[in-house]
Amino acid sequence: MKKIRNFSIIAHIDHGKSTLADRLLQLTDTVSDREMKEQLLDSMDIERERGITIKMQAVRVYYKALDGETYMLNLIDTPGHVDFSYEVSRSLAATEGVLLLVDATQGIEAQTMANYYLALENDLEIIPVINKIDLPSADVEKVSEEIDRVLGIPPEDCVYCSAKTGEGVKEILEKIVERIPAPKKQEEEELKALIFDAHYDQYRGVVSYIRVVSGEINLRQKIKMMSSGNTFEILDLGYFSPQMTKAKTLKEGEVGYLISNIKEIDEAKIGDTVTDAKFSAKVPLPGYKEAKPMVFCGFYPVDTEEFVPLQEALEKLKLNDAALHYETESSQALGFGFRIGFLGLLHMDIVRERIEREFDIELVITAPNVRYKLTMNSGEQKLIENPNDYPDVQMIDVCEEPYMGLSVILPNDYMGSVMDLVKEHRGIYKKTEYLDATRQMITVSIPLNELIANFFDKLKSRTKGYASMDYWFENFQLSKLVKVNILINGEPVDALSFICHALKARNIAKAMTEKLRKLIPRQMYEVAIQGVIGGKVICRESISAMRKNVTAKCYGGDISRKRKLLEKQKKGKKKMKSIGSVQVPKEAFLSVLSASDT
Protein backbone atom coordinates (compact mmCIF):
# COMPACT_ATOMS: atom_id res chain seq x y z
CA MET A 1 0.00 0.00 0.00
CA LYS A 2 2.92 2.38 0.58
CA LYS A 3 3.60 2.33 -3.16
CA ILE A 4 0.03 3.19 -4.26
CA ARG A 5 -0.97 6.76 -5.21
CA ASN A 6 -4.59 7.62 -6.12
CA PHE A 7 -5.11 11.07 -7.68
CA SER A 8 -7.40 13.11 -9.95
CA ILE A 9 -6.69 15.87 -12.46
CA ILE A 10 -9.03 18.84 -11.93
CA ALA A 11 -9.21 22.17 -13.78
CA HIS A 12 -11.38 24.69 -15.61
CA ILE A 13 -12.65 23.56 -19.02
CA ASP A 14 -9.99 23.56 -21.77
CA HIS A 15 -6.98 23.95 -19.45
CA GLY A 16 -5.34 20.73 -20.70
CA LYS A 17 -6.47 17.87 -18.39
CA SER A 18 -6.92 15.24 -21.12
CA THR A 19 -3.65 16.25 -22.84
CA LEU A 20 -1.75 15.91 -19.53
CA ALA A 21 -3.35 12.47 -19.00
CA ASP A 22 -2.10 11.50 -22.51
CA ARG A 23 1.47 12.54 -21.63
CA LEU A 24 1.40 10.65 -18.30
CA LEU A 25 0.31 7.48 -20.15
CA GLN A 26 3.08 7.95 -22.73
CA LEU A 27 5.86 8.76 -20.27
CA THR A 28 5.10 5.69 -18.10
CA ASP A 29 4.98 3.45 -21.24
CA THR A 30 1.39 2.45 -20.43
CA VAL A 31 0.46 3.16 -24.06
CA SER A 32 2.89 2.68 -26.97
CA ASP A 33 3.52 5.51 -29.46
CA ARG A 34 1.77 3.42 -32.14
CA GLU A 35 -1.46 3.18 -30.08
CA MET A 36 -1.32 6.78 -28.90
CA LYS A 37 -3.88 9.32 -30.08
CA GLU A 38 -5.03 12.68 -28.75
CA GLN A 39 -7.58 12.67 -25.89
CA LEU A 40 -7.01 8.93 -25.46
CA LEU A 41 -9.21 8.67 -22.35
CA ASP A 42 -12.14 10.51 -24.00
CA SER A 43 -13.74 7.38 -25.41
CA MET A 44 -17.04 8.81 -26.69
CA ASP A 45 -17.22 10.29 -30.21
CA ILE A 46 -19.12 13.27 -28.86
CA GLU A 47 -16.26 14.05 -26.41
CA ARG A 48 -13.68 13.95 -29.18
CA GLU A 49 -15.76 16.10 -31.54
CA ARG A 50 -16.50 18.80 -28.97
CA GLY A 51 -13.05 18.63 -27.35
CA ILE A 52 -14.54 18.28 -23.86
CA THR A 53 -14.52 15.54 -21.22
CA ILE A 54 -18.00 14.41 -20.17
CA LYS A 55 -17.26 11.19 -18.26
CA MET A 56 -14.46 10.72 -15.76
CA GLN A 57 -12.05 7.94 -16.74
CA ALA A 58 -9.92 5.78 -14.42
CA VAL A 59 -6.55 4.35 -15.51
CA ARG A 60 -3.65 2.59 -13.73
CA VAL A 61 0.00 3.34 -14.61
CA TYR A 62 3.29 2.09 -13.13
CA TYR A 63 6.13 4.60 -12.63
CA LYS A 64 9.74 3.93 -11.62
CA ALA A 65 10.67 6.95 -9.51
CA LEU A 66 14.14 8.48 -8.97
CA ASP A 67 14.38 6.65 -5.60
CA GLY A 68 14.48 3.37 -7.59
CA GLU A 69 11.06 2.16 -6.39
CA THR A 70 8.15 1.36 -8.76
CA TYR A 71 4.84 3.00 -7.78
CA MET A 72 1.27 2.16 -8.82
CA LEU A 73 -0.49 5.39 -9.83
CA ASN A 74 -4.29 5.33 -10.21
CA LEU A 75 -5.30 8.39 -12.23
CA ILE A 76 -8.86 9.68 -12.68
CA ASP A 77 -9.33 12.27 -15.48
CA THR A 78 -12.35 14.50 -14.75
CA PRO A 79 -14.59 16.92 -16.74
CA GLY A 80 -14.12 20.69 -16.46
CA HIS A 81 -17.56 22.12 -17.32
CA VAL A 82 -19.73 23.36 -14.44
CA ASP A 83 -22.59 21.00 -15.45
CA PHE A 84 -20.38 17.97 -14.73
CA SER A 85 -19.01 19.02 -11.32
CA TYR A 86 -20.93 16.05 -9.83
CA GLU A 87 -18.57 13.73 -11.76
CA VAL A 88 -15.61 15.61 -10.21
CA SER A 89 -16.98 15.30 -6.65
CA ARG A 90 -17.41 11.51 -7.11
CA SER A 91 -13.85 11.05 -8.39
CA LEU A 92 -12.42 13.03 -5.45
CA ALA A 93 -14.05 10.60 -2.98
CA ALA A 94 -11.92 7.79 -4.49
CA THR A 95 -8.54 9.61 -4.27
CA GLU A 96 -6.03 11.05 -1.76
CA GLY A 97 -4.74 13.96 -3.85
CA VAL A 98 -5.29 16.14 -6.93
CA LEU A 99 -3.35 17.92 -9.65
CA LEU A 100 -4.95 21.38 -9.94
CA LEU A 101 -4.23 22.48 -13.51
CA VAL A 102 -4.06 26.21 -14.35
CA ASP A 103 -3.57 27.60 -17.88
CA ALA A 104 -0.44 29.83 -18.03
CA THR A 105 -2.15 32.09 -20.60
CA GLN A 106 -5.50 32.52 -18.79
CA GLY A 107 -4.77 32.15 -15.09
CA ILE A 108 -7.35 31.18 -12.48
CA GLU A 109 -10.87 30.75 -13.89
CA ALA A 110 -14.27 30.17 -12.24
CA GLN A 111 -14.15 26.35 -12.30
CA THR A 112 -10.54 26.40 -11.03
CA MET A 113 -11.86 28.04 -7.84
CA ALA A 114 -14.87 25.69 -7.58
CA ASN A 115 -12.72 22.55 -8.00
CA TYR A 116 -10.11 23.88 -5.54
CA TYR A 117 -12.78 24.24 -2.84
CA LEU A 118 -14.14 20.74 -3.67
CA ALA A 119 -10.64 19.32 -3.08
CA LEU A 120 -10.32 21.26 0.20
CA GLU A 121 -13.70 19.90 1.41
CA ASN A 122 -12.45 16.36 0.75
CA ASP A 123 -9.21 17.13 2.67
CA LEU A 124 -6.99 16.17 -0.29
CA GLU A 125 -3.36 17.02 -1.02
CA ILE A 126 -3.35 19.69 -3.77
CA ILE A 127 -0.46 20.03 -6.26
CA PRO A 128 -0.86 23.18 -8.44
CA VAL A 129 0.37 22.62 -12.02
CA ILE A 130 0.84 25.60 -14.37
CA ASN A 131 0.28 24.22 -17.89
CA LYS A 132 0.89 25.54 -21.44
CA ILE A 133 4.21 27.24 -20.56
CA ASP A 134 5.37 26.67 -24.18
CA LEU A 135 2.88 29.22 -25.59
CA PRO A 136 4.22 32.70 -26.51
CA SER A 137 1.43 34.40 -24.50
CA ALA A 138 2.16 32.39 -21.30
CA ASP A 139 2.87 34.55 -18.22
CA VAL A 140 4.11 31.99 -15.67
CA GLU A 141 5.24 34.52 -13.05
CA LYS A 142 1.92 36.37 -13.06
CA VAL A 143 -0.11 33.12 -12.79
CA SER A 144 2.06 31.75 -9.93
CA GLU A 145 1.58 35.06 -8.05
CA GLU A 146 -2.18 34.80 -8.66
CA ILE A 147 -2.22 31.23 -7.23
CA ASP A 148 -0.32 32.52 -4.19
CA ARG A 149 -2.69 35.46 -3.65
CA VAL A 150 -6.05 33.77 -4.44
CA LEU A 151 -5.49 30.15 -3.31
CA GLY A 152 -2.76 30.74 -0.73
CA ILE A 153 -0.33 28.22 -2.32
CA PRO A 154 3.29 29.54 -2.51
CA PRO A 155 4.97 29.70 -5.99
CA GLU A 156 7.68 27.20 -4.95
CA ASP A 157 4.97 24.50 -4.56
CA CYS A 158 3.84 24.94 -8.20
CA VAL A 159 5.01 22.63 -10.99
CA TYR A 160 5.52 24.15 -14.45
CA CYS A 161 4.80 22.04 -17.53
CA SER A 162 3.62 21.85 -21.12
CA ALA A 163 1.29 18.86 -21.51
CA LYS A 164 1.55 19.25 -25.30
CA THR A 165 5.36 18.99 -25.57
CA GLY A 166 5.89 16.84 -22.44
CA GLU A 167 8.15 19.44 -20.75
CA GLY A 168 7.93 19.20 -16.94
CA VAL A 169 5.72 16.06 -16.92
CA LYS A 170 8.50 13.98 -15.30
CA GLU A 171 8.59 16.51 -12.41
CA ILE A 172 4.80 16.10 -11.99
CA LEU A 173 5.21 12.32 -11.57
CA GLU A 174 7.93 12.88 -8.94
CA LYS A 175 5.69 15.36 -7.07
CA ILE A 176 2.82 12.82 -7.10
CA VAL A 177 5.06 10.17 -5.52
CA GLU A 178 6.57 12.65 -3.06
CA ARG A 179 3.53 14.65 -1.91
CA ILE A 180 0.33 12.63 -2.41
CA PRO A 181 -0.10 10.28 0.58
CA ALA A 182 -0.54 6.52 0.18
CA PRO A 183 -3.99 5.10 1.11
CA LYS A 184 -4.44 4.79 4.89
CA LYS A 185 -4.47 1.30 6.39
CA GLN A 186 -7.98 0.62 7.74
CA GLU A 187 -8.51 -0.96 11.15
CA GLU A 188 -11.28 -3.32 10.01
CA GLU A 189 -10.33 -6.35 7.94
CA GLU A 190 -13.70 -7.00 6.22
CA LEU A 191 -14.16 -6.07 2.57
CA LYS A 192 -15.50 -2.58 1.78
CA ALA A 193 -15.31 -1.22 -1.79
CA LEU A 194 -16.92 1.99 -3.04
CA ILE A 195 -18.66 2.00 -6.46
CA PHE A 196 -17.67 5.46 -7.77
CA ASP A 197 -18.83 4.99 -11.38
CA ALA A 198 -20.29 2.38 -13.76
CA HIS A 199 -21.18 1.81 -17.38
CA TYR A 200 -23.45 -0.61 -19.22
CA ASP A 201 -21.97 -3.11 -21.69
CA GLN A 202 -24.63 -4.76 -23.86
CA TYR A 203 -22.71 -8.06 -23.93
CA ARG A 204 -21.43 -8.27 -20.34
CA GLY A 205 -24.00 -6.28 -18.36
CA VAL A 206 -23.02 -3.71 -15.71
CA VAL A 207 -19.32 -2.81 -15.31
CA SER A 208 -18.79 -1.22 -11.86
CA TYR A 209 -15.74 1.00 -11.18
CA ILE A 210 -14.57 0.41 -7.59
CA ARG A 211 -12.08 1.72 -5.05
CA VAL A 212 -11.20 -0.93 -2.44
CA VAL A 213 -11.21 0.87 0.92
CA SER A 214 -10.54 -2.12 3.20
CA GLY A 215 -9.93 -5.86 2.81
CA GLU A 216 -9.45 -7.41 -0.63
CA ILE A 217 -11.75 -8.60 -3.43
CA ASN A 218 -11.16 -11.79 -5.45
CA LEU A 219 -12.36 -13.41 -8.66
CA ARG A 220 -15.33 -15.80 -8.14
CA GLN A 221 -15.96 -14.27 -4.69
CA LYS A 222 -19.59 -13.94 -3.54
CA ILE A 223 -20.31 -10.26 -2.85
CA LYS A 224 -23.23 -8.30 -1.38
CA MET A 225 -24.52 -4.82 -2.29
CA MET A 226 -25.15 -3.11 1.05
CA SER A 227 -28.01 -0.85 -0.17
CA SER A 228 -30.16 -3.71 -1.50
CA GLY A 229 -28.70 -6.75 0.31
CA ASN A 230 -28.59 -8.71 -2.98
CA THR A 231 -25.69 -11.11 -3.55
CA PHE A 232 -23.72 -11.76 -6.74
CA GLU A 233 -20.68 -13.71 -7.90
CA ILE A 234 -17.71 -11.84 -9.42
CA LEU A 235 -17.25 -13.12 -12.99
CA ASP A 236 -14.49 -10.70 -14.01
CA LEU A 237 -12.14 -8.43 -12.06
CA GLY A 238 -9.35 -6.10 -13.09
CA TYR A 239 -8.14 -2.56 -13.72
CA PHE A 240 -7.89 -0.07 -16.61
CA SER A 241 -4.53 0.42 -18.30
CA PRO A 242 -6.38 2.10 -20.17
CA GLN A 243 -7.92 -1.08 -21.68
CA MET A 244 -9.67 -3.46 -19.28
CA THR A 245 -6.89 -5.68 -17.88
CA LYS A 246 -7.86 -8.81 -15.91
CA ALA A 247 -6.61 -9.44 -12.37
CA LYS A 248 -7.31 -12.23 -9.84
CA THR A 249 -7.50 -9.87 -6.88
CA LEU A 250 -7.77 -6.15 -6.00
CA LYS A 251 -6.23 -5.20 -2.66
CA GLU A 252 -6.86 -2.41 -0.18
CA GLY A 253 -6.23 1.03 -1.70
CA GLU A 254 -6.47 -0.15 -5.33
CA VAL A 255 -8.82 1.12 -8.03
CA GLY A 256 -10.34 -1.19 -10.67
CA TYR A 257 -13.54 -2.70 -12.06
CA LEU A 258 -15.74 -5.69 -11.37
CA ILE A 259 -18.31 -7.52 -13.51
CA SER A 260 -20.79 -9.82 -11.79
CA ASN A 261 -24.05 -11.30 -13.00
CA ILE A 262 -25.85 -7.95 -12.56
CA LYS A 263 -28.37 -7.58 -15.36
CA GLU A 264 -30.75 -5.11 -13.71
CA ILE A 265 -29.36 -1.60 -13.90
CA ASP A 266 -30.89 -0.59 -10.50
CA GLU A 267 -28.73 -3.22 -8.74
CA ALA A 268 -25.46 -1.30 -9.30
CA LYS A 269 -26.05 2.04 -7.59
CA ILE A 270 -23.21 4.54 -7.77
CA GLY A 271 -22.08 5.34 -4.20
CA ASP A 272 -23.06 1.85 -2.94
CA THR A 273 -20.70 -0.27 -0.80
CA VAL A 274 -19.62 -3.74 -1.98
CA THR A 275 -18.86 -6.24 0.81
CA ASP A 276 -18.35 -10.00 1.23
CA ALA A 277 -21.60 -12.03 1.17
CA LYS A 278 -20.58 -14.25 4.13
CA PHE A 279 -18.45 -11.91 6.29
CA SER A 280 -20.33 -8.66 5.67
CA ALA A 281 -19.30 -5.23 6.91
CA LYS A 282 -21.60 -3.73 9.55
CA VAL A 283 -21.53 -0.07 8.42
CA PRO A 284 -21.50 1.01 4.72
CA LEU A 285 -19.20 3.72 3.36
CA PRO A 286 -20.66 7.28 3.31
CA GLY A 287 -21.30 7.22 -0.48
CA TYR A 288 -22.39 10.44 -2.24
CA LYS A 289 -24.95 13.16 -1.89
CA GLU A 290 -27.80 12.77 -4.36
CA ALA A 291 -27.30 15.05 -7.39
CA LYS A 292 -30.03 17.70 -7.60
CA PRO A 293 -31.40 18.31 -11.11
CA MET A 294 -31.72 22.01 -11.95
CA VAL A 295 -33.27 22.11 -15.43
CA PHE A 296 -36.28 20.07 -16.57
CA CYS A 297 -37.74 19.40 -19.99
CA GLY A 298 -39.86 16.85 -21.84
CA PHE A 299 -38.31 14.29 -24.23
CA TYR A 300 -40.83 12.76 -26.66
CA PRO A 301 -40.10 10.27 -29.47
CA VAL A 302 -41.16 11.59 -32.91
CA ASP A 303 -42.44 8.08 -33.65
CA THR A 304 -44.78 7.08 -30.77
CA GLU A 305 -43.78 3.41 -31.22
CA GLU A 306 -40.28 4.30 -29.96
CA PHE A 307 -41.51 5.08 -26.41
CA VAL A 308 -40.27 1.71 -24.99
CA PRO A 309 -36.83 1.92 -26.75
CA LEU A 310 -36.52 5.49 -25.34
CA GLN A 311 -37.23 4.16 -21.84
CA GLU A 312 -34.56 1.47 -22.25
CA ALA A 313 -32.09 4.07 -23.57
CA LEU A 314 -32.68 6.29 -20.50
CA GLU A 315 -32.19 3.31 -18.15
CA LYS A 316 -28.78 2.59 -19.72
CA LEU A 317 -27.75 6.25 -19.67
CA LYS A 318 -28.86 6.54 -16.02
CA LEU A 319 -26.23 3.95 -15.08
CA ASN A 320 -23.61 5.86 -17.04
CA ASP A 321 -24.81 9.20 -15.65
CA ALA A 322 -25.90 9.14 -12.00
CA ALA A 323 -27.18 12.76 -12.18
CA LEU A 324 -29.97 11.89 -14.66
CA HIS A 325 -33.55 11.88 -13.27
CA TYR A 326 -36.64 11.02 -15.30
CA GLU A 327 -40.31 10.06 -15.03
CA THR A 328 -43.03 9.33 -17.58
CA GLU A 329 -45.49 12.01 -18.70
CA SER A 330 -48.00 12.44 -21.50
CA SER A 331 -49.03 15.36 -23.69
CA GLN A 332 -52.13 15.85 -25.87
CA ALA A 333 -49.97 17.15 -28.70
CA LEU A 334 -46.94 14.83 -28.42
CA GLY A 335 -48.24 11.60 -26.86
CA PHE A 336 -46.17 9.69 -24.27
CA GLY A 337 -42.70 10.80 -23.26
CA PHE A 338 -40.47 11.58 -20.27
CA ARG A 339 -39.93 14.58 -18.00
CA ILE A 340 -36.15 14.60 -17.44
CA GLY A 341 -34.08 16.54 -14.88
CA PHE A 342 -30.60 17.78 -15.85
CA LEU A 343 -27.75 19.59 -14.09
CA GLY A 344 -27.68 22.28 -16.79
CA LEU A 345 -28.23 23.05 -20.48
CA LEU A 346 -24.98 21.42 -21.66
CA HIS A 347 -25.94 18.26 -19.75
CA MET A 348 -29.34 18.34 -21.51
CA ASP A 349 -27.73 18.82 -24.93
CA ILE A 350 -25.25 15.94 -24.39
CA VAL A 351 -28.01 13.52 -23.25
CA ARG A 352 -30.17 14.46 -26.26
CA GLU A 353 -27.30 13.91 -28.67
CA ARG A 354 -26.31 10.59 -27.07
CA ILE A 355 -29.89 9.24 -27.33
CA GLU A 356 -30.17 10.28 -30.99
CA ARG A 357 -26.72 8.88 -31.89
CA GLU A 358 -26.28 5.78 -29.75
CA PHE A 359 -29.89 4.55 -29.81
CA ASP A 360 -31.06 6.07 -33.13
CA ILE A 361 -34.23 7.64 -31.65
CA GLU A 362 -35.45 10.95 -33.08
CA LEU A 363 -36.72 13.30 -30.36
CA VAL A 364 -38.98 16.31 -29.86
CA ILE A 365 -37.89 18.40 -26.85
CA THR A 366 -40.12 20.85 -24.97
CA ALA A 367 -38.86 24.16 -23.55
CA PRO A 368 -36.46 23.77 -20.58
CA ASN A 369 -37.82 25.01 -17.25
CA VAL A 370 -36.95 24.83 -13.55
CA ARG A 371 -38.55 23.54 -10.34
CA TYR A 372 -40.77 26.05 -8.50
CA LYS A 373 -42.00 25.86 -4.91
CA LEU A 374 -45.69 26.73 -4.35
CA THR A 375 -47.46 27.11 -1.00
CA MET A 376 -51.19 26.52 -1.38
CA ASN A 377 -53.96 28.27 0.56
CA SER A 378 -54.38 25.04 2.56
CA GLY A 379 -50.73 25.30 3.73
CA GLU A 380 -49.59 22.37 1.56
CA GLN A 381 -46.28 22.84 -0.28
CA LYS A 382 -45.78 21.63 -3.86
CA LEU A 383 -42.71 21.40 -6.11
CA ILE A 384 -43.73 22.01 -9.74
CA GLU A 385 -41.46 21.44 -12.74
CA ASN A 386 -44.09 20.73 -15.39
CA PRO A 387 -46.17 23.77 -16.48
CA ASN A 388 -49.18 21.47 -16.99
CA ASP A 389 -49.21 20.67 -13.24
CA TYR A 390 -49.43 24.38 -12.32
CA PRO A 391 -52.62 24.82 -10.20
CA ASP A 392 -55.29 27.50 -10.48
CA VAL A 393 -54.01 30.95 -9.38
CA GLN A 394 -56.80 31.30 -6.78
CA MET A 395 -55.48 28.22 -4.95
CA ILE A 396 -51.89 29.55 -4.57
CA ASP A 397 -50.82 31.58 -1.53
CA VAL A 398 -47.05 32.01 -2.16
CA CYS A 399 -44.82 31.37 -5.22
CA GLU A 400 -41.06 30.84 -4.87
CA GLU A 401 -38.40 30.26 -7.52
CA PRO A 402 -34.83 28.87 -7.19
CA TYR A 403 -31.98 31.38 -6.99
CA MET A 404 -28.39 30.49 -7.85
CA GLY A 405 -25.15 31.95 -6.58
CA LEU A 406 -23.12 33.01 -9.62
CA SER A 407 -19.43 33.94 -9.71
CA VAL A 408 -18.04 35.55 -12.88
CA ILE A 409 -14.31 36.14 -13.44
CA LEU A 410 -13.80 38.88 -16.06
CA PRO A 411 -11.37 41.58 -17.25
CA ASN A 412 -11.98 45.03 -15.70
CA ASP A 413 -12.90 46.59 -19.07
CA TYR A 414 -16.13 44.55 -19.33
CA MET A 415 -17.46 45.21 -15.81
CA GLY A 416 -20.12 47.72 -16.96
CA SER A 417 -21.60 45.54 -19.72
CA VAL A 418 -21.68 42.44 -17.44
CA MET A 419 -23.46 44.37 -14.68
CA ASP A 420 -26.06 45.50 -17.26
CA LEU A 421 -26.52 41.88 -18.32
CA VAL A 422 -27.00 40.78 -14.68
CA LYS A 423 -29.59 43.53 -14.23
CA GLU A 424 -31.48 42.48 -17.39
CA HIS A 425 -31.69 38.95 -15.99
CA ARG A 426 -33.03 40.07 -12.57
CA GLY A 427 -29.69 39.38 -10.82
CA ILE A 428 -28.80 40.86 -7.40
CA TYR A 429 -25.22 42.11 -6.99
CA LYS A 430 -23.36 40.86 -3.89
CA LYS A 431 -19.62 41.61 -3.96
CA THR A 432 -16.48 42.16 -6.07
CA GLU A 433 -13.03 40.65 -5.42
CA TYR A 434 -9.92 41.77 -7.32
CA LEU A 435 -7.74 38.87 -8.51
CA ASP A 436 -5.02 41.11 -9.99
CA ALA A 437 -4.61 44.52 -11.66
CA THR A 438 -6.57 43.47 -14.77
CA ARG A 439 -9.19 40.93 -13.58
CA GLN A 440 -11.88 40.72 -10.94
CA MET A 441 -14.49 38.26 -9.69
CA ILE A 442 -18.06 39.42 -9.11
CA THR A 443 -20.58 37.39 -7.12
CA VAL A 444 -24.32 37.79 -7.74
CA SER A 445 -27.56 36.02 -6.93
CA ILE A 446 -29.69 35.22 -10.01
CA PRO A 447 -32.92 33.27 -10.70
CA LEU A 448 -32.17 29.89 -12.29
CA ASN A 449 -34.90 30.52 -14.87
CA GLU A 450 -32.90 33.55 -16.09
CA LEU A 451 -29.59 31.69 -15.98
CA ILE A 452 -30.80 29.02 -18.43
CA ALA A 453 -32.26 31.65 -20.79
CA ASN A 454 -29.11 32.11 -22.92
CA PHE A 455 -27.21 33.92 -20.12
CA PHE A 456 -23.88 32.16 -20.78
CA ASP A 457 -23.93 32.93 -24.53
CA LYS A 458 -24.69 36.60 -23.86
CA LEU A 459 -21.92 36.75 -21.23
CA LYS A 460 -19.36 35.33 -23.68
CA SER A 461 -20.51 37.71 -26.41
CA ARG A 462 -20.36 40.84 -24.20
CA THR A 463 -16.89 39.98 -22.87
CA LYS A 464 -15.50 38.74 -26.24
CA GLY A 465 -15.06 35.28 -24.72
CA TYR A 466 -12.85 36.38 -21.81
CA ALA A 467 -15.31 35.77 -18.94
CA SER A 468 -15.77 32.45 -17.15
CA MET A 469 -18.53 31.53 -14.72
CA ASP A 470 -19.48 29.03 -12.04
CA TYR A 471 -22.85 28.64 -10.29
CA TRP A 472 -24.38 26.78 -7.34
CA PHE A 473 -27.83 26.47 -5.76
CA GLU A 474 -28.57 29.04 -3.03
CA ASN A 475 -32.24 29.01 -1.98
CA PHE A 476 -35.86 29.59 -3.01
CA GLN A 477 -37.05 33.23 -3.01
CA LEU A 478 -40.49 34.85 -3.33
CA SER A 479 -41.47 35.65 -6.89
CA LYS A 480 -44.45 36.76 -8.97
CA LEU A 481 -44.91 33.79 -11.28
CA VAL A 482 -47.52 33.24 -14.01
CA LYS A 483 -48.38 30.34 -16.28
CA VAL A 484 -48.71 31.27 -19.97
CA ASN A 485 -50.78 29.05 -22.27
CA ILE A 486 -50.38 29.16 -26.06
CA LEU A 487 -53.69 28.71 -27.89
CA ILE A 488 -53.91 27.72 -31.56
CA ASN A 489 -57.41 28.42 -32.91
CA GLY A 490 -58.67 28.66 -29.32
CA GLU A 491 -57.27 25.23 -28.35
CA PRO A 492 -54.42 25.14 -25.74
CA VAL A 493 -51.29 23.21 -26.80
CA ASP A 494 -49.97 21.76 -23.54
CA ALA A 495 -46.42 21.18 -24.83
CA LEU A 496 -46.01 24.92 -25.54
CA SER A 497 -47.18 26.27 -22.14
CA PHE A 498 -44.54 27.68 -19.75
CA ILE A 499 -44.08 29.31 -16.33
CA CYS A 500 -42.14 32.57 -16.00
CA HIS A 501 -41.92 35.84 -14.08
CA ALA A 502 -44.88 38.19 -14.69
CA LEU A 503 -42.60 40.99 -16.02
CA LYS A 504 -41.20 38.78 -18.81
CA ALA A 505 -44.36 36.86 -19.75
CA ARG A 506 -45.52 39.12 -22.61
CA ASN A 507 -42.08 39.33 -24.29
CA ILE A 508 -41.53 35.55 -24.24
CA ALA A 509 -45.10 34.80 -25.38
CA LYS A 510 -44.81 37.37 -28.19
CA ALA A 511 -41.52 35.88 -29.44
CA MET A 512 -43.07 32.41 -29.33
CA THR A 513 -46.27 33.33 -31.20
CA GLU A 514 -44.24 35.16 -33.90
CA LYS A 515 -42.09 32.06 -34.45
CA LEU A 516 -45.14 29.81 -34.60
CA ARG A 517 -46.75 32.12 -37.17
CA LYS A 518 -43.76 31.59 -39.46
CA LEU A 519 -43.57 27.82 -38.90
CA ILE A 520 -47.20 26.64 -38.97
CA PRO A 521 -48.32 26.12 -42.59
CA ARG A 522 -51.23 28.23 -43.92
CA GLN A 523 -54.70 26.67 -43.90
CA MET A 524 -57.81 27.35 -45.97
CA TYR A 525 -59.04 29.53 -43.06
CA GLU A 526 -57.43 32.11 -40.76
CA VAL A 527 -55.53 30.62 -37.77
CA ALA A 528 -55.19 32.64 -34.55
CA ILE A 529 -52.16 32.03 -32.26
CA GLN A 530 -52.59 33.60 -28.81
CA GLY A 531 -50.62 33.87 -25.59
CA VAL A 532 -52.99 33.70 -22.60
CA ILE A 533 -52.59 34.16 -18.82
CA GLY A 534 -55.72 32.80 -17.14
CA GLY A 535 -58.51 34.24 -19.30
CA LYS A 536 -56.54 37.30 -20.47
CA VAL A 537 -54.98 37.39 -23.96
CA ILE A 538 -51.54 39.07 -23.76
CA CYS A 539 -50.49 38.72 -27.42
CA ARG A 540 -51.84 37.46 -30.73
CA GLU A 541 -50.56 36.57 -34.17
CA SER A 542 -52.70 35.49 -37.14
CA ILE A 543 -51.86 33.22 -40.06
CA SER A 544 -53.88 34.51 -43.00
CA ALA A 545 -56.03 32.06 -44.96
CA MET A 546 -55.06 30.65 -48.34
CA ARG A 547 -57.45 32.42 -50.68
CA LYS A 548 -58.96 31.26 -53.93
CA ASN A 549 -60.18 34.06 -56.23
CA VAL A 550 -63.82 32.96 -56.64
CA THR A 551 -64.70 36.16 -58.51
CA ALA A 552 -62.20 35.49 -61.33
CA LYS A 553 -64.93 34.21 -63.64
CA CYS A 554 -67.07 37.35 -63.05
CA TYR A 555 -65.95 39.98 -65.54
CA GLY A 556 -68.13 43.05 -65.87
CA GLY A 557 -71.77 42.88 -64.79
CA ASP A 558 -73.40 43.74 -61.47
CA ILE A 559 -71.23 44.02 -58.29
CA SER A 560 -73.93 42.21 -56.25
CA ARG A 561 -73.01 38.94 -58.06
CA LYS A 562 -69.41 39.23 -56.84
CA ARG A 563 -70.58 40.02 -53.31
CA LYS A 564 -72.83 36.97 -53.32
CA LEU A 565 -69.91 34.68 -54.26
CA LEU A 566 -67.60 36.24 -51.61
CA GLU A 567 -70.33 35.86 -48.94
CA LYS A 568 -70.74 32.20 -49.89
CA GLN A 569 -66.96 31.67 -49.61
CA LYS A 570 -66.92 33.42 -46.21
CA LYS A 571 -69.60 31.04 -44.84
CA GLY A 572 -67.67 28.04 -46.17
CA LYS A 573 -64.46 29.19 -44.46
CA LYS A 574 -66.35 29.75 -41.18
CA LYS A 575 -67.73 26.21 -41.30
CA MET A 576 -64.26 24.82 -42.18
CA LYS A 577 -62.74 26.68 -39.23
CA SER A 578 -65.25 25.21 -36.81
CA ILE A 579 -64.38 21.62 -37.81
CA GLY A 580 -60.77 22.09 -38.97
CA SER A 581 -57.73 21.09 -36.87
CA VAL A 582 -54.25 22.62 -37.26
CA GLN A 583 -51.25 20.28 -37.51
CA VAL A 584 -48.32 21.79 -35.57
CA PRO A 585 -45.02 20.61 -37.16
CA LYS A 586 -42.03 19.29 -35.15
CA GLU A 587 -39.99 22.44 -36.00
CA ALA A 588 -42.56 24.54 -34.11
CA PHE A 589 -41.87 22.65 -30.87
CA LEU A 590 -38.11 22.84 -31.37
CA SER A 591 -38.38 26.59 -31.99
CA VAL A 592 -39.77 27.01 -28.47
CA LEU A 593 -36.24 26.37 -27.15
CA SER A 594 -34.87 29.43 -28.87
CA ALA A 595 -38.05 31.49 -28.42
CA SER A 596 -37.79 31.09 -24.64
CA ASP A 597 -34.26 32.54 -24.77
CA THR A 598 -35.54 36.08 -25.33
Task: Provide structural commentary.
With 598 residues, this protein is α+β, with helices and mostly antiparallel strands. It folds into five domains: 4-179, Rossmann fold (3-Layer(aba) Sandwich); 192-276, Translation factors (Elongation Factor Tu (Ef-tu), domain 3, Beta Barrel), CATH 2.40.30; 295-365, Alpha-Beta Plaits; 373-478, 2-Layer Sandwich (Alpha-Beta Plaits), CATH 3.30.70; 482-595, Alpha-Beta Plaits. It has a six-stranded mixed sheet with strand order 2-3-1-4-5-6, with helices on both faces. Strand 10 and strand 11 form a beta hairpin. Helix 12 packs antiparallel against helix 14. The longest helix is centred in the C-terminal third of the chain and has 21 residues, at 559-579. The chain is globular. Residues 593-598 have low confidence and may be disordered.
